[in-house]
Amino acid sequence: MKTRIIEVHQKIIKSMFLGFVFLLSIDAYAASAQMNYAQRADVKSFINEMVDKHGFDKAYLVAKFSNAKRLDNVLESIAKPAERELTWKQYRPIFVTDSRSNKGRKFIKEHQATLKRAEKEYGVPVEIIAAIIGVETYYGKHTGKYTVFDSLTTLGFDYPKRSAFFKSELKQFLLLSKEENIDVDKMTGSYAGAMGMPQFISSSYRHYAVDFDGDGKRDLWNSTEDVIGSVANYFSEHGWKAGAEVTHPVSVKNKSIVRKKNTLKPYVSVSELEKQGVKSDALLDGKQLASLLKFEGKSGDEYWLGLKNFYVITRYNHSELYAMAVFQLSEKLKN
Questions:
Q1: pLDDT score, position 335
Q2: How far is CA 98 from CA 17, 295, 321, in A?
Q3: Rounded Cα distance, 163 and 156, in Å
Q4: How far, CA to CA in Å, does 253 sit from each of 268, 275, 283?
Q5: Is there a catalytic annotation at residue 136?
Q6: Average pLDDT over residues 301-314
Q7: Domain co-membership, 50 together with 102
Q8: Contact 199, 230 (CB under 8 A)
Q9: Last residue of a domain, one of 52, 67, 82
Q10: Mean pLDDT across 121-132
Q11: Distance between CA 307 and CA 267 in Å, rounded?
């Protein structure tokens, strides 16, 4: 009996201790939340790096980080368990629609000269450029309303899982604001920091955005010309082959050659697939590499050959569903 009483007392003490530790952690979290970013050691280190390596004014950065807002809704959004993976029959109706294609044809008509100029300069078809903008932001209708500086600061310093990536994007963002002379307080985008009509993240903005309207700055919010030229340049820089095919539907006799998970990068020659019983209605260059892709379509399994240009589309968004949506929307824009 005495032993039992001692055990009970031990459990009570342990429970009280754990409760105390929990309360301490809550207090520490509250204190951290009340402390502005500029007071934190990790942010001070970041500021010093930007001053020492990139020539920023320290007082300017301290002021910006002092006023930066921690966006809990951004943390909630990025930390949510991933939604179940959509199948092609679920994904296609979201993006390959009559309303989106009608708006796309109107966009092409309004900006035909600029789109043609981009196609000539970069080799990327008018319809592919327009389809990217259509899938990304419905031609500028949905570009995001989060203040990018607050989003990237929140994710860079309060989301440990991907802290290194978002700190890097925050650095790129500040460099971008300096180069383009744009107020960081006015730059808005998605909760993860993607910006403008084409939804470029900061590093992509700096590396691939172009001044296509010749006004001396790269503006992916207000200059449709810059948007069009930048999307085309992005594709060109990632290896788009002018005049080459993107993807083709095929029939597959031997299902055992289909990989369990789609491989985005082309890995086998078309001629080798043909030897294994893969057939296409199109006359394709047998020497080119392709990926044999499987999609769960509305009427059952669909099989497609993903060629080099299909892979290039996945460099914009690493998803075969995304690339197929862009391709099929671009086909509708031709009509």
A1: 77
A2: 62, 22, 18
A3: 5
A4: 17, 11, 18
A5: yes
A6: 98
A7: no
A8: no
A9: 67
A10: 98
A11: 10
Same domain, 211 and 270: no
pLDDT higher than 60, residue 29: no
Q: Which domain holds residue 83?
A: 69-243+318-335
| CB 304 within 8 Å of CB 247 | yes
Same domain, 152 and 292: no
pTM exceeds 0.85? yes
Kindly name the residue from 7, 83, 119, 136 that is annotated as catalytic: 136
29 within some domain = no
Please state, as a whole number, how many other Cβ atoms lie within 10 Å of the Cβ of residue 119. 18
Q: Which residues of 56-92 are buried (b: 16+ CB within 10 A; e: fewer)?
A: beeeebbebbeebebbeebbeebeeeeeeeeebeebb
Structure token digits, residue 261: 């998970």
Tally of structural domains, the chain: 3
- The larger pLDDT score, comparing residue 26 to residue 16, is at 16
Residues 254 and 134 occupy one common structural domain = no
**Exposure letters 29-55 (e unless 16+ CB within 10 A, then b):** eeeeeeeebbebeebbebbeebbeeee
